[in-house]
Amino acid sequence: MRVLWSVGLFVGLLQLSSSLRLGAFNIKSFGDQKASNTTLMDIISTIIHRYDIILIQEVRDNDLSATKKLMEHVNKGSSEFSYTVSEPLGRSTYKERYLFLYRQKSVSVVKSYTFDDGCESCGTDTFMREPFVVMFSSKLTASSTFTLIPQHTSPDLAVKETDALYDVVTDVRSRWNTNNIVLLGDFNAGCTYVTGSDWQKIRIFTDKSFHWLIPDTTDTTVSHTNCPYDRIVVTADMLKGVVGGSAWVYDFMADLNLSHSLALAVSDHFPVEVELRT
């Protein structure tokens, strides 16, 4: 009986662990200064190792020197993680990149593109930082391919830019003939940036075929605010590939037993995450 129970427990643990974990993390102003701080890089690397794919936002790294330092720190001589990264994005001299790190034994990049949101120099483009769309493939997940649409909205344009993600989804569906889509990132979707009636102006909210996995009651900030800025939204088809109840905020401050000041030195945001079925 004890042997059977042990075998059953082992199988159960295998089942519990048989998923692919996806995360989105706004690492506040990630560049050479942060990349040169060994303490912070140790913490960031520990967080990254939690995931099979992680989107990192607010990457301020024109020459990719900080990104290369991060990869060296994460891999420590191995090639466990690889990355794909956008061009610097922004309307002014202030620019950010979208950076995806992914575990090579779990997933691979199929293709990617930067969404064309209009004439940037004319001032008629939609996004401050247009999405860098990436399709991944995995032999581990129920959906063999899935597409990630990242977005770090400009706070004052959060309603407009979050709404415009609907157009990005439409473009992805047309271009790649897929509906296995995850939208993720720091949408600034809460507190003073998106309030009350604003939600009715956001098509990925009013269209109930989209499912918001991080609820409005969630706090995704390290600071003393209580705001659900960071979100994960999936299409109806993608929802079938999500482990129920797995979407949440990873409180690295509590989990790694960090002081509040040290956690804030890492970022003013916690990662949000979800697990995909295998």
TrEMBL record:
Q: Where in the cell is it found?
A: Nucleus envelope; Secreted; Zymogen granule
User: What GO cellular component entries does it have?
Assistant: extracellular region; nuclear envelope; zymogen granule
Residue pairs linked by disulfide bridges in the UniProt entry? 119-122, 191-227
> Which metal ions or organic cofactors does this protein require, according to UniProt?
Mg(2+); Ca(2+)
Record GO biological process = DNA catabolic process
State if Glycoprotein is listed as a keyword.
yes
Cite a single GO MF annotation.
deoxyribonuclease I activity
Q: What is its main location?
A: nucleus
Report the protein name in the record: Deoxyribonuclease
Q: Kindly state which keywords UniProt assigns to this record, in alphabetical order.
A: Calcium, Cytoplasmic vesicle, Disulfide bond, Endonuclease, Glycoprotein, Hydrolase, Nuclease, Nucleus, Secreted, Signal
Identify its protein family. Belongs to the DNase I family.
Signal sequence interval, chain numbering: 1-19
Q: What reaction does this enzyme carry out catalytically?
A: Endonucleolytic cleavage to 5'-phosphodinucleotide and 5'-phosphooligonucleotide end-products
Q: What is the protein's species of origin? A: Fundulus heteroclitus
Q: Catalytic site residues?
A: 96, 152
SUPFAM superfamilies on file: DNase I-like
Query: Which InterPro entries would you find in this protein's record?
Result: DNase_I (IPR016202), Endo/exonu/phosph_ase_sf (IPR036691), Endo/exonuclease/phosphatase (IPR005135)
Q: Residues in domain Endonuclease/exonuclease/phosphatase? A: 24-269
Q: Which domain of life is it from?
A: Eukaryota
